[in-house]
Amino acid sequence: MSALVVLAVDDEPRALADVQRLLERSPRVERVDTAGGGREALSRLVSGHYDALLLDVRMPEIEGLELARLLRRFDDPPEVVFLTGHAEAAVEAFEVEAMDFLVKPVSRERLDAALARIEAARARSGTGSAQASGATGVVALDNPGAEGKRLVRLDRISRIDADGDYAQIHSEDGDFVLRASLAQLEEDWGGAGFARVHRAHLVNLNHAIELRSQPNGTAVIELRDGSRVPVARRSVAALRRRLKG
User: What one-character DSSP code corresponds to residue 224?
Assistant: First the structure.
């Protein structure tokens, strides 16, 4: 089995540097990434695969326990090990099915024991860092009118509309926003079936049910949620070939 890919998260720079150093010296670890808080960690988790998440319990923005609960929406979430100076948080940690709970300062022996447990768990489940990311297909979006992020699967997104510096995301789970350009989203999500059909619209072709030609050479694509999205003249031929393929 491949060595572990680990994400370590702590809002205290010195504590984060200490655990990073221990992880990098472990033969059980292939790669270590770090994040200085919950939001940064969530961004890394939705864009890459990790076997293990070493996570501080008390953090601003998104606390460790809240982030651990969000991971339940992932197909193949990393194993969670909590790092904290608050021993009283152990009960809550195990309520979110954490693999282990390490009290700071973390010793090399205690950390190695936690990594061994993670290796054994990943081996039993047949997963590892060489496999496809369990986070692939999940994106963290801003939820208008509510605090925090919402995790939404890409296959539930039907279309995206440009709105200045933001993208309006329309999905089966509701409407959300993301600070990104359509060009960037087309590059990032093209492999999941998204296509730019107009300068202001990106659609998930897996949701398409009909492409209707218009007299002026443009077209309209109808999606299974009933919405109709205009297709620019220059995009019609390529889109028709892609849908037939």
Answer: T
Query: 182-237: per-residue pLDDT in tens?
Result: 998 988 898 889 999 999 999 999 999 999 999 999 999 999 999 999 999 999 99
Rounded CA separation 16/99 (Å): 19
Q: Does 106 map to a domain?
A: yes
Which is nearest to 21 in space by CA: 38, 8, 40? 8
Give the pLDDT band of residue 74 (cuts 50, 70, 90).
confident
Q: Give pLDDT tens digits for 100-145.
A: 888 888 899 989 989 998 988 877 765 444 333 333 467 778 877 7
Q: Give the whole-angstrom CA distance, residue 198 versus residue 194.
A: 12
What is the reported pTM?
A: 0.53
Q: Does residue 68 share a domain with residue 32?
A: yes
Is there a contact between 82 and 102 (Cβ–Cβ < 8 Å)? yes
Structure-token match 């939001």, residue found: 39
- Which residues contact residue 33 at a Cβ distance below 8 angstroms, ignoring those fewer than 6 apart? 5, 6, 7, 8, 44, 48, 50
Q: Are 176 and 153 in contact (CB under 8 A)?
A: no
What is each CA distance from 234 to 176, 198, 231, in whole angstroms?
Answer: 29, 9, 8
Distance CA 50, CA 211 (A): 40
**For residue 147, is it within any domain?**
no
- Note whether 159 and 115 are same-domain residues: no
Confirm whether 145 is domain-assigned. Answer: no
Q: Regarding predicted confidence, which is higher, 92 or 142?
A: 142
Structure tokens at 83: 């790092």
Instruction: Sort strands 149-153 and 138-142 into parallel, antiparallel or unpaired.
Output: antiparallel
Tokens of 151: 């995790």
